[in-house]
Amino acid sequence: MADHDRRGSPYSTRPIGEAGDGRWLFAKVAANPTIAQTKASPAALPSGSEMVPGGVVVLDDLLVPTSLHPEQPTSGSRIGRMSAPQLGLVVLFVSMTVLFGASLVAYLITRAQSPVWRTPEMPHLPLGLLASTAILGALSVFMHRAVRAVRENRNEGLVRELHFALVSAAAFLVCQSSNWKTMIPALHGTDPYARYAFTFYWLTALHAAHVVGGFVPLGIVVARARRSQYSSSRHEGVRLCRQYWDYLGVVWIVLLATLYFAT
Q: What digits encode the pLDDT tens for the residues 100-144?
């Protein structure tokens, strides 16, 4: 059914994707080719709009509950209201939680069975761990700002925030390398005292391995953002990447708290 914008120009409504919270994003498309031609310049597009084949998509004020709109889009790649990539990420989170959880349980059991955990000559936990925490926090902030930028169709801002996140991830690994170097003297102890250092390296290296793995999706998202392949209606990759790094941030806080509590 056609409707009209504020200037009386005819538009048609079409579903373009899921917005979350049980709602779908319905866009108004300029049905008249003449309208599309007059707005062909990106600078001339209204705020919150984008060019698509056949017309201009106006994205503002069109979040419609699925239960109220008769033109609900369907997709075979969705299970319920969850997309296939989102479901895959959830499965990954479950498997990672089992891995980290089992590692923490093994760490706590080892700690409970060791009457002497750290001898006086062994170093304390590095203060650099706090710096690593701050870096991960900054990375999460950059990813959230990247999602906000793409939702506002600010591709330059999206690319900038993603680059900041990429640099932060690299800085985290550099900081962790310094922390590992600080703990080297603790490895010179004899068993069972060396368990203090061994378990520290195991937990932090396990987390760092997933940080290294996170460079793959982050690099893909950065490359696509550079080619302007994301928009306010198509940015699931950015959103899922943000969720991955948020998850690693939460896991790191739990690991760090456990290390300080047990030590």
A: 999 999 999 998 988 878 878 888 899 999 999 999 999 999 999
As a CATH number, domain 79-262 is: 1.20.120.80
Domain layout of the chain by residue ranges: 2-74, 79-262
Q: Which pTM was predicted?
A: 0.71
The 10s digit of each residue's pLDDT in 29-40 is: 555 444 443 333
How far is 261 from 253, CA to CA, in rounded Å?
12
The DSSP line for the chain is -EEE-TT--EEEEEEEEEEETTEEEEEEEE-SHHHHHHT-SGGGSPTTEEEETTEEEE-TT-EEETTT-S-----TTEETTEEHHHHHHHHHHHHHHHHHHHHHHHHHHHHHT-S----TTSPPPPTHHHHHHHHHHHHHHHHHHHHHHHHTT-HHHHHHHHHHHHHHHHHHHHHHHHHHHHTGGGGGSPTTTTHHHHHHHHHHHHHHHHHHHHHHHHHHHHHHHHTT--BTTB-HHHHHHHHHHHHHHHHHHHHHHHHHHH-
